[in-house]
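Researcher: Here's the sequence for the chain we discussed earlier.
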Amino acid sequence: MTIGGATRLVGLIGNPVEHSLSPLMHNAAFAAVALDWTYVPLPVKRERLEEAIAGLEALGFAGANVTIPHKTAVVGYCDELDDVAARAGSVNTLVVRDGRVLGSSTDGPAVVGLVEAQGARVLVLGAGGGAQAAATSLGDAGAESITVAARDAERAHALAVRLRTLFPDSQISAEGDWPPLGREATLIVNATPIRDEALIELSPEQQVVDLAYRQDGSDSALVAAARQAGCERIVDGLEVLLAQGAASFERWTGIEAPVPVMRAALSR
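Model: Thanks. This is the structure I predict for it:
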């Protein structure tokens, strides 16, 4: 990979970012379609986020992904949000175009595309931007009920309140216990960064999605527990990363994402 004067830059804004496999995945994709583009990690502290977003346009970036802990805070620094991001109140993809920063979210649609959401009784673990995006998209896709559980009970309650305004006819609740039991759930989404603890007991009829992943590609504790329990559908963090990453790639470039190449990069 050679960076020259004509190279377009895309970045990953978060803190920390050194664990992310997004640069590996996207740089393989850019090479596969012969784009002179490069994806770089951009560690940004919360107090410098506004400056960082303004800097994307100033430095000529084509866009960026946004990860923990900035997915909700970055909403306030976008010039425009697409419908998905506006409903979710969460942004994971920025497109810089004509001097404006456009905010989008590919997290929630990625999850919905990998599970059966219609009629599901959803338990979301976590209350940050990823949880917010996933819960909103699952509600839009016809989930019967959504329960939010988080280590910080106040944040879980706040997310439940937000979801009730979006889905007044659905059963929305916040779980008071952490970790929750999850026995009534048919679809469990881990939107926390916890990789080494399964958090809840699982049963075969459940679908399980883990947004967290290990850099070496081995199963997270939750995914390993889901396999052991014989869960109906198991989606690991790398599958979600691939799906949301492909959608981000297409927003930046206007080119169909080379998904097999991106999958192969992650498998390495």
